[in-house]
Give the backbone structure.
Amino acid sequence: MKTNKFFAAAAAALGLATMANAQTTVYIAGAPALRTELTSAIENLLLGQTSVDRTYNGSAIITANVVRWRNATIGGQGNVTIQINYNGSAGGWKTNSASQQVRFIPDSAAAGSGATDVLTSTTANATLAVPDFHISNEYQDSTPWIGTNTISFPENGATTYQSLTDEIVGILPLRLVASKAAPSGLNLTPQLARQLYTNGELRLSQLTGNQSDYAKKVYPLSRGIDSGVRTLWAAANGIGTSTPILTYNATVGSTTNKPVLGVTVVSPGTGYTSAPTVTFSGGGGSGAAATATVANGRITGFTVTSSGSGYSSAPSVSLSGGNGTLASARAVIEGGTVTSHALWAATAAPVGNATDSRILGISTPVGNGGYATFAPLLSALTSNLSLSGGNSGDIYLTVLGDSDADSAIKGGAKEVSWNGNTLGTLGTYGNIGGVENTPTSVGSATPSLANGSYDLWGYVRLPYRSNLTSNAAKYAVHQAIAAQLRNYDAPVKLGDVNVQRTADGGIIEPGQFVP
């Protein structure tokens, strides 16, 4: 029998009366791709604590860029404030290893939703602090943020980056997808991936083996250089994490009067005893309706019962009832038409009063950019290409996290095999009466991932500087979150996979990774 996932939080709550009332503030940065898992882990550790107040941007804590919890008891510590800024996987490594300040919700901000997103609103009032640790999906060796170099903001001179203690807590799998017009059954090899991202295109016939596809082109899309998903992909296909690539920025038109094609689980939530009510709002249309499916206390999927019409952007999805919390979903509408695209513009230091367009202070050549957020990338993947001088059947190809790939596929994109293998459908852990239950024989993994035939994945980690251990209260909070992720809330549990690796994109070796 597995350990009750709420034991740590309950034990901490019982001991609250005996603890000192000293304030502890813990600052966390890191990967948006792991936002659901980290936010869920913290919320699960705080279950039953009615004194906690929450502040976050947007309408849902599970999708917020910046979050603050106050008056919490966690890791045996009382009167804890936790601040999160999801500044990117690479951004987490950079700011943490160089002890650089990050923007967090100001102390004066009132509790509740709708707080200013101080991550993107860079002139808004914010609390500036160095992260105590961050969440990431890449090794430090895969980033520029190691040793002493002038890669970031070279005009400021060399920066020294401390080697961090790398605490691995789970596994993040990735999936390949091609855009709407792609045929089913495509397969990409590492050699073809390198050609695609260094030349900027492939012949579709190279993926299908059909002469009739020779005139059709495959173009690469990507997230930006601050994305850990991009880093894992560059390591897996052999291009290398420091080599510039060629990717496109698409212009999408004809996006009005669209139906809702699907709803994706962003966060399954916890504690659901019945299906919550699904409500759509915004997006310019009307009439969409869907039902949720619940198993083992979590939302496992949605069925669209009415597609509606008139949507020019994806409506927001609200979930109410069912006695659960923390679930979140994303609606996917029918795509439009890609009328043009261009290689991403170069970025460089500003001249005069120009805006600094560099990401993480790095100047990049033409083509080496990428999408800062998922929404415009999803729009390109769910649209048909109608390029001047192009061919009917031209497509895009990219790599995504599991949930994002599911959204793209619901919008008409096609999954692409990686070196002859696909990930499959991940299992989930649910909670009944405080006892965890596994619905599949490989738990949270899939047979191809668990047994090593599918190697497009990286480790989830909570790296920290060596001085964190000298602050007993902060280190206790870190260890509580790490244990919660490792045992329950990571995308895939380490113990559900029978292989391991020592580098991003490295050789798959038999044997479970033991932290």
User: Anything to note?
Assistant: The chain has ten helices and 30 strands. The first helix runs from residue 7 to 14.
